[in-house]
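Two proteins, back to back. First:
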Amino acid sequence: MIKSRWVFLKRPDNLTEKQGSKLAELLKHNLKTVKSYLLKEEFQLFWAYASPYWVELFLDDWCAKTMRSKIEPMKKVARMLRNHRRLLLNWFWAERRFSSGVVEGFNNKAKLTTRKA
């Protein structure tokens, strides 16, 4: 476990060969750290869904699984996701049609007003 923090934080496709072998060795053990890592990697699938219906099912299932994990920091994340569930699902219901251009324009105007003051 010594010096393995970055192995867990990096995405698997960004790991070097040495880090990949270290990760494979760590995954053989049934540690809380490994369970947390696997939950984190599983959640990455959330962003791959295109259908709001399937995203909703995935989110509910992932949060339920995480709440049963007995890992308090991960349970905290699951509670936070449940609290913001509607906002997360809105992104999928909008079908990614809206850009942040309007918000960026408003922020730019606010910045200009602040500079002039």
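And the second protein:
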Amino acid sequence: MPYFIYKISSNNELSALESFDKFPDAKKRVRALREDSTARNEHTFRIIFAGDTEAAERLLREKREPSPGED
């Protein structure tokens, strides 16, 4: 399964940017994207491991339970 990089805008709009077979490659690319992003940009970048873009977007939209200690 590939690692997908998504750009998530402030209104929670998802945009698939790239996919990688290996996590280190995806991590390196998302770090570069974050560094190139200015402080004014109102979006974030996320890596998600999924079978395809449909599954990746479903996982990104899923509400998760807070971890112990989180509010």
